[in-house]
Amino acid sequence: MTKRVAILISGGGSNMVSLVKIMQQDAQCNAKPVLVLANSDTAGGLAKAADLGVDTQVVDHRPFKGDRVAFEAVLHDVIEKYSPDIICLAGFMRVLTPSFIDKWTGKMLNIHPSLLPKYKGLHTHQRAIDARDMVAGCSIHVVTSELDGGPVLAQAKVAITPDDTADTLAAKVLVQEHKLYPAALKEFVRV
Global pTM? Predict the structure, then answer.
């Protein structure tokens, strides 16, 4: 059975595009993109998703003025209308509450720009440079109520060079993200 996938974004949606393309172009990927949802109507990924023929929705978090429970209630209602089997967080820059996550236990994936368990949260590239790490990378993990703490499904590494900045390292990691997330999703829907 083909798995229905909703993708949540906040920005340009480059990881979303790589996910949609594998679902649309790889017959071995047993998944179909049914929704791209952003938490801002200015998210550049919305136009990209529409161009790829995927339904889009916006649930703007700002009118909720910090009321995460109310925001997530609307978010959940919109997502449910598309009956997804899996949710992929692809640069969705909102921390979700345990009550929302519990509704999708074992069915929500996230990409994080570090080699978890190192550098959970923000500013991962600068933290890796500051620690004088030799490698950095990205991780795909199952979302749990612990921030960036769920089981890791896949990782990709890149070398940190002496002249790397947070921006140059981020660019190198992003190249790997675009390969890793689609491959991890393809494997996740297979099992």
Answer: 0.96
